[in-house]
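dude i think i finally got it to work??
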Amino acid sequence: MTGSTICGLVLIMSLSISVAQSAKKDSIEAENETVKTPLLKNVYFGEHHLHTRNSFDAFTVGVTQAWEDAYRFAMGDEIKLSTTGEKIKRRTSYDFIAITDHSEYLGVLKDLVDPKNPLSHSDFAYSLSKMRTDPEAAKDLVTLTPPTEKELLAYFNKHQQRYQEPERYTFTQIFINPDKRKDAEKIKAKLIAQGDAMENVGALGDSFMLQNYYPEKERIEIQKLFGTGFTEALSKLSTGQWHGPVLSGYGVHLVYVSAISIPPSPIFAEVRERVMQDWETEKGEELYEKFYVNLRNQYTVVIEDPDEDNPITVMEEQAL
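look at this
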């Protein structure tokens, strides 16, 4: 082998090692980059809200798909809708799926339409079976009849306070740490002497993590910051003067209420949509309650006396 051949081989080997090392370095860097990527910054696609036959609303319109079918659909399998006969399939599978069946009637619905189950002979079970095949019957039992405008207005008048906008308070507070000083009354006297001058009033108190001035705050907002006791006391203070000491979980406060904004009474036309939502929710709960009562009436609860000859029963009774 000549000297030039050896040099050529050495050069080729050096280049190969260099390329391999470079490739390995790129691979390690890519791997490290992957590891460093925060999982919370990854994007996932899925379904947040899906009902199966275990939900009353889906069951009554003829849905027969179970949890297993929902899982298959999420994984990209083809399923056939029981309501329309349509075959559906996703082009790509989901990363996640949330089955959010209602807790009401869970596990009971299938018994109501099972001829072998005593529950299927109840009046409600008859109505349920009928409405699964008769759209008009389903509409009468499940869909609430919309209220008239007069009924909705009467509901609004009855619950008018629910739609009243809350009062808002504009106030200044100065924090006094009771562990460091006992001169709250002296500071209040000085503030009263200053009149309406509010510049740097916080300097008269102690350092505090919350701000001194709060404009247009609702009671719930004040309560979250200062607690219930402070908020109740604040709501009773008159405007235009210094009050205190007012107590909170933090300590002692001197408080000046600049203004109390009292909103006008609610107008039906402006809150009509909210009123309708509340009416539908309340009537829906009444419908559910009727179902529960009907279902309870199908059972007779018998509490048997414990068997004294059964040692397990005796042990459980002693444990209680």
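The longest strand covers residues 252-261.
im so relieved honestly
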